[in-house]
Specification:
Layout lengths: L1 H11 L12 H12 L9 H17 L8 H15 L10 E5 L6 E4 L3 E5 H4 L5 H16 L2 H8 L3 H5 L2 H12 L7 H16 L3 H17 L6 H10 L9 H6 L3 H13 L12 H7 L3
Parallel strand pairs: 1-3
Antiparallel strand pairs: 2-3
Helix pairs in contact: 2-9, 3-10, 4-6, 6-11, 6-12, 11-14, 12-14
């Protein structure tokens, strides 16, 4: 049954993908108002926090580089990403995937189902299995709530109570020349920015590696895909400027490859067909 279902969904990847879901600002404003009306900050539940922190984190990532003006590539990455995410166990978020026009090699996730990959990273990817490995790693960050937990642990309750200001500031910016800035909200934004500048903990990154290769393999891809990408990035050399952000925010490539080798060796080879899909990647991933 698993193999049959995987075959049908793999075939669907080659079809016409739906448009990238837009951010529902109206829904965010509605949720933000409920937060503003809450008497106690402790009553702001994790799902609400994840939604609004994810929105702000996505804005932080997109403030550094724009979306790549390649609609065909965007649809393809979304189709693949959603196929992988469908096997992740998290059905409570709306998964959104995007390619950023940035020559540096990197990928990021944000709470509430946002996943971004750069054109610089895709330049080192040569098959759908390799891209699946990269996306599955980021998907697992969302599934395990790595960024959300890191932001929550570094943030005071007063700042979390200011989450409503994220949406309120956005709405005000559309029609006002000046905006009253909530100082607690600014601290929260600073916390988010610092996290993405320094990266997650070593343990979180290695955890996403391990879980990501399992997810990619379970969804029918060669689980060595992520390892192949890391090997190519490692071949650039440590002084390559395009890897500056990547090496600053992740454990060493050598350590990751060593850990991944052990993880992949323990996977049951009968559990996944190990597809690589180089031809389909060349057809749809035009950069």
């Amino acid at each position: 049954m698993r193999t049959r279902r995987a075959f049908v969904l793999f075939a669907a990847l080659a079809g016409v993908a739906p448009a990238v879901p837009a951010i529902d600002l109206g829904g965010i404003l509605s949720t933000a108002q409920r937060i503003a009306d809450t008497a106690k900050p402790s009553e702001v539940d994790d799902a609400t926090q994840e939604k609004l922190i994810g929105e702000q984190a996505a804005r932080e990532i997109l403030s550094k580089a724009p979306l790549a003006p390649l609609p065909g590539l965007q649809r393809y990455v979304n189709r693949l990403g959603r196929y992988l995410a469908a096997g992740s166990g998290r059905t409570d978020v709306e998964w959104r995937f995007a390619v950023i026009d940035d020559a540096s090699a990197n990928a990021w996730a944000a709470p509430d189902g946002y996943v971004f990959v750069t054109t610089g990273m895709l330049a080192d990817v040569q098959s759908e299995a390799e891209l699946a490995g990269v996306l599955a790693h980021e998907i697992e960050h969302v599934v395990q709530r790595h960024h959300l937990k890191a932001i929550q642990s570094a943030t005071r309750r007063g700042q979390l109570a200011a989450l409503a200001g994220i949406a309120q500031d956005t709405a005000a910016a559309e029609g006002a020349s000046t905006i009253t800035v909530n100082p607690e909200l600014e601290k929260l934004r600073g916390t988010i920015g610092q996290l993405y500048d320094r990266g997650l903990s070593r343990g979180d990154e290695l955890d996403a590696d391990h879980r990501g290769v399992e997810l990619a393999g379970q969804r029918g891809y060669d689980p060595y895909g992520l390892m192949l990408v890391l090997q190519k990035l490692g071949a650039h050399g440590k002084d390559d400027a395009s890897l500056a952000s990547f090496t600053r925010t992740h454990p060493s490539i050598e350590e990751r490859l060593k850990k991944l080798e052990s993880a992949v060796e323990h996977l049951d080879p009968a559990f996944f067909p190990g597809r690589t899909q180089e031809e389909r990647y060349r057809k749809y991933a035009q950069i």
